[in-house]
UniProtKB/TrEMBL annotation:
<dbReference type="InterPro" id="IPR011006">
    <property type="entry name" value="CheY-like_superfamily"/>
</dbReference>
<feature type="modified residue" description="4-aspartylphosphate">
    <location>
        <position position="56"/>
    </location>
</feature>
<dbReference type="Pfam" id="PF00072">
    <property type="entry name" value="Response_reg"/>
</dbReference>
<keyword id="KW-0597">Phosphoprotein</keyword>
<dbReference type="InterPro" id="IPR001789">
    <property type="entry name" value="Sig_transdc_resp-reg_receiver"/>
</dbReference>
<feature type="domain" description="Response regulatory">
    <location>
        <begin position="7"/>
        <end position="121"/>
    </location>
</feature>
<dbReference type="InterPro" id="IPR050595">
    <property type="entry name" value="Bact_response_regulator"/>
</dbReference>
<protein>
    <submittedName>
        <fullName>Response regulator</fullName>
    </submittedName>
</protein>
Length: 131
């Protein structure tokens, strides 16, 4: 982790998520930055500062799994908590498992998010998180 309060970067095309989730994360003891797309996150200069990603699965352009693969190609190992609105059973199998601490279906509880982030950050020192 980079600072006493871990930085969680949120990447989601849904404006309501980008507006509400940072406040919740701050209440839970995290620092938070929000991005409207994977491309915006990649161009932000925040990759090296990010301790964990909360990453939407389905976004226009580069999807959440696409961003995970791009980060892996760049040698970046950031733990990820995927989030998604569609409740399709096909979602979980398409998610990369190397850095994923699981997938939460929107709307998710504060407790579920806290648990997923804690798992991701506790296991951040390992290269593989098991879902």
């Amino acid at each position: 982790m980079n600072a006493p309060f871990p930085l969680v970067s949120i990447v989601d095309d849904d404006e309501s998520v980008r507006e509400s989730l940072p406040d919740l994360l701050r209440e839970l003891g995290f620092r938070a930055e929000a991005f409207s797309s994977a491309e915006q996150f990649l161009g932000s200069g925040m990759i090296d500062e990010t301790d964990c990603l909360v990453l939407d699965v389905y976004m226009p352009g580069m999807t959440g799994p696409d961003l995970e693969r791009e980060l892996a190609c760049r040698g970046q190992s950031i733990p990820i908590v995927f989030i998604t609105a569609p409740r399709y059973e096909i979602v979980r199998p398409i998610l990369p498992k190397e850095r994923s601490a699981g997938c939460l279906f929107k709307p998710f509880s504060d407790t579920a998010l806290q648990k997923a982030l804690n798992l991701a950050l506790e296991d951040a020192s390992t290269a593989c998180l098991v879902v």
